Amino acid sequence: SKVNALVEIVGALAQAGNHRQAVDIAAQAEDVARSIPSTDPDSQVAALARVAGALAQAGQYRRAVRGAITIAVQAEAVARSITNPRSQSAALAEIARALARTRWPHRAAAIATQAEAVARSITDPRSQSAALAEIAGALAQAGDRRRAEALARTITDPRSQSAALAEIAGA
User: Fold this and answer.
1) Which of 70, 94, 65 is nearest to 82 (CA)?
2) Three-state secondary structure readout of the chain
3) What is the pTM of this model?
4) Which of 18, 27, 82, 135 has its CA 20 to 30 A from that of 45?
5) What are the angstrom distances between the C-alpha of 110 and each of 8, 12, 30, 37?
6) Dihedral sign, CA of 128, 46, 103, 16?
7) DSSP secondary structure string for all residues of 114-162
8) Percent helix, strand, coil in the chain (nearest 5)?
9) CB under 8 Å to 59, separation ≥6 — which residues?
10) d(Cα 102, Cα 86) in Å, to the nearest integer?
11) HSE of 47, CA atoms in CB hemisphere, 13 A
């Protein structure tokens, strides 16, 4: 997608130290993400979270971090409009990951807690396990490894549990 391509460019620019240009390209990516119809909130939230994460990557530039936080908060509001629990928990987990990259771990952990509550309402055991694994990864990225590991240990699907524990170990 166009958002993904722009996010890749933002990442490359940030790595090269071109933070100001990275922020400018991220603004274009944000515009594209916001143009996604509100009838497709899953895609809009995912795109906004990717933009927030990309801005956070350009984080040596103060405006980038503020922008990432603003976008993530707006994406959180859109995520709440998603009615499918699997999609909503995935969206919230992605927002938590983006916020973890902005060095706002307390908010990331709070959103991960909300994502966990939604994930626990998923009735399909495999889908629930996959959702909880994503959330455990988000918690680890936010620096809450103890809580991430405790959550991972509650996952009933062995594959999802080992994937979560591996991500936690690598975080």
Assistant:
1) 94
2) CHHHHHHHHHHHHHHCCCHHHHHHHHHHHHHHHHCCCCCCHHHHHHHHHHHHHHHHHCCCCHHHHHHHHHHHHHHHHHHCCCCCHHHHHHHHHHHHHHHHHCCCHHHHHHHHHHHHHHHCCCCCHHHHHHHHHHHHHHHHHCCCHHHHHHHHHCCCCHHHHHHHHHHHHHC
3) 0.75
4) 18
5) 28, 30, 24, 27
6) positive
7) HHHHHHTT--SHHHHHHHHHHHHHHHHHTT-HHHHHHHHHT--SHHHHH
8) 80, 0, 20
9) 14, 65, 68, 101, 102, 103
10) 25
11) 24
What are the structure tokens assigned to 94, written together? Answer: 């992605």
pLDDT-derived band at 56, boundaries 50, 70, 90: confident
CA distance 98 to 49: 6
Q: Token pair 């973890």 is at which residue?
A: 100
Look at the chain and count its residues: 171
99 pLDDT tier (thresholds 50, 70, 90): confident
